Every structure is written in structure tokens, then in C-alpha cells.
């Protein structure tokens, strides 16, 4: 009796637990504790190897299913851990994101699935780290152990955006292409490109080290500071704090329908579910998107596009069919400044809305503040009762640019190097009313779209009293300076200041005139290779240039609203018709000139205009704005 009481008083241990309670306790342990129990005793080793215990961990950490079981769950877990163990805390999150994305794309965009690449090995990632001299974050490595990005094709996996004269589609770069684009230059030091658009050259970068004001593994769009002297001054629009957050949030927006699928592409429009207004049987909803490639922090210029959906209920009566006549916008920036816009139709169309029909269109606007909002109404008339008009509310929708960081290398602003239009908060691009900031010069055109153009700084400068005389004097001084340099070079070296002063005034004048004559002669000869600025659809001033071929004897600048293209050209093709046909454009301004680097900015247009009558080496100069003929449909 005493012995049995003494036995009952002994402390209870795992060793003495019956089988079922012991397995229940072990089921609450994590994989590390379960492995530790295997080393405690023979009995615990036996129970810790119970296969159902490891099935839970295989599903939790590796997302493995019963169909994928080929041997014991414990063996599968150990082998997978040996390969992917360093990513065990994030693998399931990224694997689920990839699985969800593939499943969604297979149903909605099957063509995009074929562009995905197979996974890479650990050795490949280690080799890239050795190549670039920086450590890759584990979440980035883990994602590429699942899929090695995609091929450089269109459409891009990371979303698209399209306007009438602008298209962007970002591919997720594979590891080798990304490593080839690794940046070590000032402004983007130790930055790895994640995406790339073959149309615009736009990339999102990930900072691999905390330098130049960035945090490690921060993801951003680069935005050159157009007002700084230092070319390494690059501002940043932040898109993610880590690769894991950046990728999973994007996938969530895609698979939940936050980003619409349009023409088998993912479009990065964000729709606020509260941004819907219903008037009678007509519902209007709006989604918006920020375009970093057309925006800048310095100067403040934030570009947004919005997509509007107009739908009539399918239960509406047939006699409720109507046609849109006009629009009214009330545009407010972050400072509270208000601008009102009215105009006929939308993007040059007057859509008819009938029961069950949907009409969608895209337009854009800019702000000089980081945010703003728009609201307004459409005016319709009934098709059955043509004298009956009514307004349909457009809900207020807000546009906010992402968080940005200012470059630490930013230097003193140089306004002379920033000759672009400093737009105020602009109207929507549908607007073509006769306003002070907008010029529309009708020219015959057979196409169906028309864009507005802001009055150039050059045109305003030309109207200033004395501007023509100042420019002439400035150009004369510059011509004298260049002539002296060329003359000294041709004579075998620079003369000393005393020797130059000792020359007679007549000798200096003759030398200058002779040198100018030589410059003109060489410039106009067939053997002269012109140099021109060359950039394609740039929202900023062009900084790159090249030597043209001998057939190209002119520099061209063509401007479409906010975008400019600079290139070499042929003077014989500097006609409105040939430029319009080549660029497939309706509304633009263009300049042709025959001086080195004369096509840089609107100021250049002004100088050429002023000097055309003064004998400047400019054989042709045009500044044209075009829209549809009177009575034709206009667009925004």
C-alpha cells in the first residue's frame, strides 16, 4: 500500500506519458523542437518521427500537398530544408504569391505564363553576388528560386500603362539581366534593376546598400533632378520597403481584381471602391494611376492618368438611351487652387449609352503639387426626347503621388539648364477651349485625334521687348569667342594676351570674318558630320547626343504635349506632312535646324527664330500645332 502511494507521488514526465497524449503534445512543437526531441531518448525519437507530425510542417513551410508525397514526410521536409532552409520563414509567403499569380494569369492572361522562366540554383545566386560585390536579400533570392523572372517580352509581368502617345510595360528581369544592369555610378550607386520597359527604358531599382540617402533593399523609380547642376542628383519615387512587400502587394492587387486586365495585359490602375456615383440608371466609376516616367520632383510636375467607366443599368428602359454632349471638370490641387474646365464630348467622342452598355475612356492631367482631386459632371441628351438634357455626376477622385526622396547630391538649382515648361496644375487633356495657355492652329489632317499644346516659353520670351536685340548681342559675343578659338587652333596654338592685344583692330576683324566664313562653308559642305541631341519621348531635356550620318543634315525636335523626341533628320523631310506621317502624330510642334546641338530646348527654337533674319546658320525653322479640321471630332 505504501509503495503504491509512493509511486503515485512521483513527478509525471514525457517519458511516462501514454502514446496518445504524447503525440498530442508533440503536435504543438515546431520543427526545430521536434528535431531536438529526436535526440533526447529512444522513445521520443520514435514518436518524434511519427509521419503525420511532419506532414503539418511540410504543408506549412513548403506548401506541399498529398499529391506531391513520394516518401515519408520527415524525409521530404529534411531534404527540402537542406535546399531552401535559409528561406524557411518567407518561402511559403512567396510561393503562395507565385502560385496565386500563375493561377490567375492562366485564366485571364495565359500568354504571359509562357514568358516566365524556371528557377535558378543557389550557386547561380552566389555567382551573381560575387559578380556585383553585394549581398542579395533573402526574399529576392527566394523568389528567384521559384521563378527566374521572365523573358523580355510584351506584355510585362509587372504591369502596363497606355496613353494615346505613350506606352509602358515592365518586365520582371531575370537574375543575369539584372546583374548586367547593376549600377555603380553616382546617383544610383549599388542599385540593382528589378524591372525594365523596352519601350521607355524605365526601371524599378532595389538599393542593396544604405548609400545616397536610401535604405537597404528599398525599391524605387529613379527620377533625375532637372534643376540640379550635378547629373548624379537623382530623386526617387518609393514603391516598396523590401522585395517581399513589393512583390506580394503587387500580386494581391492583381489577383483580387485591383488592377484591371485590359487586352490581355495587367494595367496598373487603382480603383477606390467608394469612387462611384450613380445618377438615375447611369453609373460612373473612376480609377487612377501615377506615371513616374512622366513626372519629376524638381521641378514639381506630377503626371496622373485616369480611366472612367460609364455604364447604364441593363434593367433600364430602352427609351432611356442617351448621348453624351459635354463635360464639366472642377480640378483642385493640394493648395486649394481651383480650376474649372468645360468642353464638348470626351476624348473627341460623343458616346451613346443604352441599357447594359459600358463606355470607358482614358485621359490624363498634371499637378504642380503632390496631390489633387477632380470632380464634375457629364451632360447627356435623350435620344428619344432630343430636347431633354440632364447631368450625370462624376464622383470626386483623388490623385496622390507615391512617397519620394530627394537626392542627397542635389546642388544649387540652375534655371538656365532647365528650359522646360513649368506647368501649373493643368486642365484635363480633353480641354481645347480657347485659353491663354493653349494654342490650336488648324492644319488639314486626316486622323482622328488632337492634342493640346501649352504656349512655349520661347514664344513668351519672343514677345518681351528687347529680347531679339539681347539674343543677337549674346550670339555675336559667342561667335567671336568661338572664332578666336578656331583661329588660334588653325594657327598652331593660342597667342598670349599681350600678343593678341597688340594686333590691330582690322586684323582681328578680318580673322574673325575669315573664320566665320570657314565655319559656314564647312557646315554646309557634304563632308560635315552634324551633331544632334537624341532622345526618344523624353519628358525632360535631352542630355545625350551623337554624330549624324552624312545623309542627315538637320537636327529635329518634335514635341507631343509633355513628351519630346530629339534626333538627326533630313532637311528635305522637314515638312509638316512628312513629320506627321513618320511619327504617326496629329498634334505636335517641331523644329528643324542645321547647327550642332541646336535642337535641345524651346530656348533653341527662340534663338533660331531670332537669328533667322540675322544670318544665323539655320536654313529652316518651324513651330507647328495641329488639330482636326473644323467640324471633325476632337480628342483630349
Automatic annotation (TrEMBL):
It comes from the Eukaryota. Pfam families: CD59, DUF525, F-box-like, SMI1_KNR4. The keyword Transmembrane does not apply. It is found in: Membrane; Secreted. PROSITE patterns: APAG, FBOX, LY6_UPAR. Interacts with T-cell surface antigen CD2. Residues 11-57 form the F-box domain. The keyword Chloroplast does not apply. Pathway: Protein modification; protein ubiquitination. GO terms for cellular component: cytoplasm; extracellular region; side of membrane. This is CD59 glycoprotein. Residues 460-479 have a biased composition (Basic and acidic residues). SMART domains: FBOX, LU, SMI1_KNR4. Residues 276-406 form the ApaG domain. It is a lipid-anchor; GPI-anchor. Residues 445-479 are annotated as: Disordered. Keywords: Disulfide bond, Glycoprotein, GPI-anchor, Lipoprotein, Membrane, Secreted, Signal, Ubl conjugation pathway.
